[in-house]
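Q: Please design a sequence for this.
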């Protein structure tokens, strides 16, 4: 450390200033450090060293994946843990993918999540039992195997033969991909839903359920594809959000009602106003559903009285169906349970009295608050029919 004294003249008077300077000297300056600092900034960071390249492209990526798979011996880890783990057994049932194409992102998410679960349990010392499988039946496979919609023109046994060959080929392709991902599973004996042993087991279990009284035959509505001529799961449906369905307003004349409603109506006919987008199912109508918790109104229009949800009186559709409507009184929802009507469309001219029934699926956000119910058409209608013992008459299709 060095002190220096400087003499200067400030405003005509001599002034002394002391300046302190510090010199590090050669002994404090590492020449190697100086050299390192002169390099790129990245060289000054203490990062882990690896032989993995920063980027792998094209065919080298495939080769690198195979090398990793071989070195890590992924295909031997499952057998090793089965032999060496001494903890309790952990069984994971594999919900199988369809054997109908190459693996995609959905397969990756499915298998990786299962692999995380399996490896965690294995790391806890448990003996993991995980047998992967494939669903080899169903429309997705048939449509991929028999392209161009030709399945309808081929014999059933031929379609099954083509689909089976396609499924076997796809299973091998998918299995190779899944194994290359290092998924911990018993790939030596996966289950296939089309294998004779699997089918035999299915039949045995089905017969056990049947013998125990759990299997019965009944009706239920299904989503139907006219083009594929098969039932569809709801997840397979694709809706056009821009589609606008045609709707109709239908009046149903009441022939029984509560004493209070009868007193309000006098000799004036009373109708329940329903709104539906499935006019073709009116012929199968068996009931009208209402919501017991909704407030309804008795309104006058065109010389008659109509029942409409109070919150929908000012709805544009209701106003168009009932021009010049005027509210006469309000009705609690549960009071409608005393009402019935004569079904408007009948088969063979026989009239039928139908009830007003409570339904939790009925809302007052659209329509009229009264729902036309055909148990043979629609899930909510079907459940209502089961609950109240309505006949499942299907007049359409």
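A: Design:
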């Amino acid at each position: 450390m060095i002190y220096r004294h400087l003499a200067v003249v400030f405003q005509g008077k001599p002034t002394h200033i002391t300046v302190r300077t510090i010199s590090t000297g050669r002994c404090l300056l590492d020449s190697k450090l100086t050299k390192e600092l002169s390099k790129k900034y990245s060289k000054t960071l203490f990062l882990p060293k690896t032989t993995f390249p920063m980027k792998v492209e094209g065919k080298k990526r495939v080769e690198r994946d195979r090398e990793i798979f071989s070195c890590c011996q992924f295909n031997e880890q499952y057998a090793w843990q089965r032999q060496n783990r001494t903890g309790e057994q952990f069984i994971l049932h594999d919900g199988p993918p369809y054997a109908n194409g190459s693996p995609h992102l959905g397969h990756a998410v499915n298998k990786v999540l299962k692999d995380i679960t399996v490896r965690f349990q294995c790391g806890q010392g448990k003996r993991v039992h995980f047998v992967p499988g494939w669903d080899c039946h169903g429309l997705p496979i048939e449509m991929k195997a028999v392209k161009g919609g030709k399945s309808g023109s081929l014999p059933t046994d031929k379609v099954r033969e083509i689909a089976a060959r396609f499924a076997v080929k796809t299973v091998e392709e998918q299995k190779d991909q899944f194994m290359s991902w290092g998924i911990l599973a018993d790939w030596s004996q996966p289950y296939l839903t089309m294998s004779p042993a699997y089918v035999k087991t299915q039949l045995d279990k089905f017969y056990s359920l049947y013998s125990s009284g759990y299997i019965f035959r009944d009706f239920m509505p299904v989503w139907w594809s006219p083009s594929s001529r098969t039932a569809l799961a709801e997840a397979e449906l694709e809706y056009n959000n821009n589609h606008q369905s045609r709707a109709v307003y239908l009046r149903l004349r009441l022939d029984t009602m509560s004493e209070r409603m009868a007193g309000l109506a006098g000799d004036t006919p009373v109708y329940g106003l329903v709104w539906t987008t499935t006019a073709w199912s009116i012929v199968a109508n068996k009931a009208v559903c209402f919501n017991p918790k909704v407030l309804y109104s008795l309104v006058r229009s065109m010389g008659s009285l109509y029942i409409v949800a109070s919150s929908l009186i000012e709805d544009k559709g209701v106003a168009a169906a009932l021009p010049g409507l005027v509210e006469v009184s309000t009705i609690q929802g549960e009071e409608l349970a005393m009402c019935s009507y004569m079904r408007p469309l009948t088969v063979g001219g026989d009239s039928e009295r139908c009830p007003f029934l409570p339904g939790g699926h009925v809302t007052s956000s659209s329509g009229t608050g009264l729902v036309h119910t055909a148990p043979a058409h629609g899930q909510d209608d079907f459940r209502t029919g089961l609950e109240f013992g309505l006949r499942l008459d299907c007049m359409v299709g």
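Q: Thanks. Anything notable?
A: The longest strand covers residues 2-10. Residues 24-29 have pLDDT under 50 and may be disordered.
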